[in-house]
Amino acid sequence: MSANVPIAPVTLSGSLVRLEPLSMHHLADLRAAAADGELWKLWYTSVPHPDKMEAEIERRLGLQEKGSMLPFTIRRQDTGAICGMTTYMNIDAVNMRVEIGSTWYARSAQRTGINTEAKLLLLQYAFEALRCIAVEFRTHWVNRQSRAAIERLGAKQDGVLRNHIRMPDGTLRDTVVYSIIESEWPTIKRHLQYLLSRMEPASC
């Protein structure tokens, strides 16, 4: 995040997931993951249709080249299957802040320990390696599932940006903004480790 710790592609591994630098080599598997649950039909999210997955990968890699995004492919450790995408985005090296977002999971990976561990890995790297002072999360006001997942991490709501973004279907999105700050990280880390320790193997 600074001259001493540049933000660059990295692989982050846990017991449930491995976050790999996004590559066009992941195209076929990401198409299959998006088809698991037909995720593009959720109007309040931006999960790409399988036919548009190649363009989405190109978009994310283009933002990586510009230094504003670091995209990952999410791979399950149990089966080796790719189950989604996530990113560090809106990278602010001057103020040492990032947003974790543009995340989606195949339906079969939802409501498991996969998201919890993925967020733990991303937060740990952001605070302990990149030395961020804050990590932000944003989601649609009507996306109750996403809001509940963010709050379950321990993030606090900063506010709501009214009429913030125009969605692909033309509707306007009220964006809910959450964050975790550096001083909160030790407690949040312990909280996430505790959540993972209580999960049954079958749910992971």
From TrEMBL:
<keyword id="KW-0808">Transferase</keyword>
<protein>
    <submittedName>
        <fullName>GNAT family N-acetyltransferase</fullName>
    </submittedName>
</protein>
<feature type="domain" description="N-acetyltransferase">
    <location>
        <begin position="28"/>
        <end position="177"/>
    </location>
</feature>
<dbReference type="Pfam" id="PF13302">
    <property type="entry name" value="Acetyltransf_3"/>
</dbReference>
<dbReference type="InterPro" id="IPR016181">
    <property type="entry name" value="Acyl_CoA_acyltransferase"/>
</dbReference>
<dbReference type="InterPro" id="IPR000182">
    <property type="entry name" value="GNAT_dom"/>
</dbReference>
<dbReference type="GO" id="GO:0016747">
    <property type="term" value="F:acyltransferase activity, transferring groups other than amino-acyl groups"/>
</dbReference>
